[in-house]
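Review box. Two proteins, two foldings.
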Amino acid sequence: MEETDNVKKLKGLFALVFPFPFFLGIAAAAAIYLVGSMSILPTQKAEEQELTILVRKVAQAYLISEKSPNPYLKEETLRLALDEATRHPQIISASIRSNNNQVLGIAQKNPGKPYFKLTNFEYPILNAEGQPLAQVHFELNPDANEATQNLKVKINWLTLLAFLIGGAIPFLFRKKTGAVEPEFFEAIKQVGQGNYEVSLPPTFRSQNEDLVQAFNNMLEGLHERDRMKHSLGRIMDPKIAEALIKEDPKLGGRIRQATILFCDMRNYTSICEELGPEELQEFLNEYWRGTVEIIMEQEGTIDKFHGDGVCVVYGAPMLHADDPLRAVRTAWRLVANVAALNERRQAQRKVPIQIGIGIHLGEVIAGHIGSERRMDYTVVGDVVNVAERIEELNKKFGTHVLISDSVYEQVEPFVRVKTLTLAHLRGHKKPILVHALKEFHDVPEDIRNQKGT
């Protein structure tokens, strides 16, 4: 009996020091922290998928290079693949090694710089019989991935917030004698999962006005951020919109090697004359819907629209080893898209449309141009002007896609062209060699020949 009384006293003292709302606060803190911790798992999985894709690209490049009779093309294919791999923030070095560990090709990021906590990522290259030919070897710096580090910082802040909530809830509820609604914790969990339309139960709202107001303000802020991100992604390139959300843009730019694509509609004026405003809007929406999808598939950055034309950048802000190939692939698919659109228009007895595309490669200045009050992310330089002038030559030659010689040198194994005479560009003293695109293949010519295609 005496033991029972002591237990009751201990329970009463424990309840006085740690009131019931305190445990509710800790439960809420644990729920928020758990949801926050789980949010890093998709990013880690995405990182693993990125590394797997890159290592397979390098392996594929090695297999292609081994079959190439051209020593320069063989070396260049391998170099481009390894260089692209080292652009990944985590990859310090990328190499291909033989079965006896001899280095066959290597690309390094910041050679000579010391790194700590490096890990290895290896992938075997097998022949058709499953026998090992060589091995792709990546050295990784796990702390270099900016997205992961940002998430870790967010998780740390989330942990602090969770414990603050755990300590604050007892004071917020110190005058309450009833239990907190379970729906409150469910609402917090829903917010952590990205559902910002959640609402608290009426009984809870009437008893906890201050907490509900803070909760609703938080929801509105998160909802507004998502609306802004969605809206920006529709009026500018999503990659640029994402950068604007994360950090304050600053004037200035960097020199980048970029491929510029200009696409223009040939008979836009005559179409405008025969269509009313609503019909014209419907036509443009149909045309741009397919055009934009093709550009986004190849990860091009839409620099600007101008009524019937568009300027697309490959190499800024995102850089790929095969940017020229992506640009030419885009052009080929844009022509096919217009052909399909014309079939529908002719069935409706409407005027078919024609497009002209010009592509050029070289150095540009990429960045935010303008003033502190108003700026745009864009690219400037002579390369941009030359690409536009090349596009204009389609009218003269009666072609659909023209590429400069610098672009042709990068994509020669994938295309068949008709080389035109040296063309004089408007505003340029020196003539330029251009090629009319006749065929495009996703597989290099030497591989197609081996397959008999």
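Next protein.
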Amino acid sequence: MLRPSTSRQDSRKKSFKKSADAEESRRKREDQMIAIRKEKREEAMAKKRINVGASGGSEINPNVFNDASDSTAMTHEQRTNAKVRFVRLLHRLKER
């Protein structure tokens, strides 16, 4: 059987469409997946920010304990309310 010479085979292979390098293709896929994950994470954070802003972001008040002029004169109920508001404030800040 006649076989073409190796140099002729090499020249024919070079004339065909170049195949993608497996390593390069894998790297591109990984980069695309990372970009997609980043976009999804950013969208989720944006939605979370919108929900926090609409549902009570204005409730965060730095003067949460200034209801009474003298903190020693606070009643038990006022102290309890202040503690609850403080815990809610911490929880909201922790979610961000």
